[in-house]
Amino acid sequence: MDLLGAQISQLRTTLGESPGAKKVLVVYAHQSAGSFNASAKDAAVEVLTAQGCTVEVSDLYAVKFKATATAEDITAEVKNPEHFRYAEETRLAWEEGTLADDIKEEQRKLTEADLIIFQFPMYWFTVPGIMKGWIDRVLTSGYAYTQEKRYSQGLFKDKKAMLSFTTGSNESMFSATGINGDMNVTLWPLQNGILHYCGFQVLAPQIFWAPSHVDAEARGAMLKAWRTRLQGLLGEAPLSFTPSDSFDGDKGFQLKPEVQEKHEGREFGLTVGTHQGKRLPPNSQIRAGV
Amino acid sequence: MDLLGAQISQLRTTLGESPGAKKVLVVYAHQSAGSFNASAKDAAVEVLTAQGCTVEVSDLYAVKFKATATAEDITAEVKNPEHFRYAEETRLAWEEGTLADDIKEEQRKLTEADLIIFQFPMYWFTVPGIMKGWIDRVLTSGYAYTQEKRYSQGLFKDKKAMLSFTTGSNESMFSATGINGDMNVTLWPLQNGILHYCGFQVLAPQIFWAPSHVDAEARGAMLKAWRTRLQGLLGEAPLSFTPSDSFDGDKGFQLKPEVQEKHEGREFGLTVGTHQGKRLPPNSQIRAGV
Q1: Under a CB-based contact definition with an 8 Å cutoff, are residues B44 and B75 in contact?
Q2: Could you list the pLDDT tens digit for every one of the 290 residues in chain A?
Q3: How far is B185 from chain A (nearest CA, A)?
Q4: Residue B34: closest CA among chain A residues belongs to which residue?
Q5: Whether ipTM exceeds 0.85
């Protein structure tokens, strides 16, 4: 533990928190307190709090979270108004402390958190617009990633993150022989391209398959299973991704020849994305240890 | 051509449009008129207009397009305020003509269009929040899809749509041996789950690989190639997806046994998503006819 870490730990103890207490941020996107997503969020807050965790919730619709990446996200003058480039301008603003207050507040919560849970209904095979806005605006260049610090060298490698979501379609539709296609493919851009990109240890997603298609009893069973999982969530092993040093930064971040050779005879590719033209490793975006 | 189609065609002729004239909608998301994305959008407007097309542009940042799916999208009283369900409430509002004016206006443009081009910088492996907001809000249940009319039976099967976007990473990083993983995987949820889901014939994406990493001359060459492609765009064959009737709606929309059997001996799966546990068909989300 570095000096700053030790000081934060001491401060937490002074404030009455136990040294091992974890902080959790739930980024939550549903319009209605009567929804299944609200119940899933409430279950996470309740079970994790009972375990001694400090849980904060960012209720995006309740705070009317701004979902658009604009120059208003910078409170100072922008550097290049003729050719405004969001990633560059916000990186500078982050360095200078001139990001908009709502972004600063979300970054404070994220910085303090050991685990982030994204709770949402899947809209069009991904997160709703309001949650994409959170991702676009809060995961600022410099703060959440740099060219050097990303993927397994990412800035948030000591944090965990996971997706917890409801679908509109049944599980069979999201299989490798189903009309929507393999859910592992749908999850790759989210789990690799956002969460793992920032370095997060990605916990297996919690997928609530089509709760609106089943009765109240079945929905209750889904929530009960989630509560059970939440008990051990912080101890779970994360999903597997290929270590960054398997890729050669001087050669377009391609797999190094020695890594390719090592895997040449194997049946499956390394991951859903870096599949090397082989069959996809089954369920690698859904279960840990596969 | 059905009766309504004939009447519309006649009306267009009366209005001075040539019978074969196509209507194009460009849904455009960049903050700056000085950007590469703006140039790509301008090129589309110019080349397609010169061909006799009528081109409309939805400039999402310019109109401060609302990116969040909320009860305010319905101008009448919502049916179930205790448990607000966006898809159901907006479907009813669409039926009753009580959707918000900005949604109605985008739906008018979309209804009239023969081709929709989404022009955007890729943010976090997908569209920016503001464009996701357009997708969430404009592609209303009932208007853009129903349980019966989706995928190759989709409501927009007589229209074409395509993604045109810039990346921050180089092409090699988005290969099947690259650190970001195969671009075909990243495109699947967007092209299958949104565009093809609504029935659109999906034209091959126009991918501008990392224009910010190259000099002005190379960027100019990218735009020139795009202008050349635009000349023949409306005549291009679309990407291939599996016909809806290959799936059994009574059995969880799984591939029918006879379709599975027919493809049993083949090396590659049917698509990136419905890959049947086989190797992914190379570049099926990037090039037509593969």
Answers
A1: no
A2: 455 555 655 555 455 455 567 999 999 999 999 999 999 999 999 999 999 999 999 999 999 999 999 999 999 999 999 999 999 999 999 999 999 999 999 999 999 999 999 999 999 999 999 999 999 999 999 999 999 999 999 999 999 999 999 999 999 999 999 999 999 999 999 999 999 999 999 999 999 999 999 999 999 999 999 999 999 999 999 999 999 999 999 999 999 999 999 998 999 999 999 999 999 999 999 999 87
A3: 6
A4: A83
A5: yes
Say whether both A41 and A132 belong to one domain: yes
Answer yes or no: is B49 within a domain. Answer: yes
Domain containing residue B231: 16-239
B273–A128 CB contact, under 8 Å = no
Question: With b meaning 16 or more CB within 10 Å and e meaning fewer, what string describes A140-161?
Answer: bbbbbbeeebbbeebbbbebbb
Q: Do B253 and A178 touch (CB under 8 A)?
A: yes
Q: How far apart are CA A273 and CA A271, in angstroms?
A: 5
Instruction: Tell me the two tokens of residue B255.
Output: 């591939």
Q: B273 with B208, same domain? A: no
**Residues A267 and A219 occupy one common structural domain:** no
Return the structure tokens found at A225. 């299973």
A179 to chain B: which residues are within 8 Å by CB? 151, 242, 244, 247, 253-254, 274
**Which residue on chain B is closest to A255 by alpha carbon?**
B177
Q: Is residue A235 part of a domain?
A: yes
Residue A29's CATH number:
3.40.50.360
Task: State whether A234 and A250 are in the same domain.
Answer: no
Helix ranges (H only) for chain B are: 3-14, 36-50, 86-96, 101-112, 129-138, 183-190, 216-232, 257-263
The model's pTM? 0.94
Give the total number of structural domains in chain A.
Answer: 2
Cβ(B271)–Cβ(A181) below 8 Å: yes
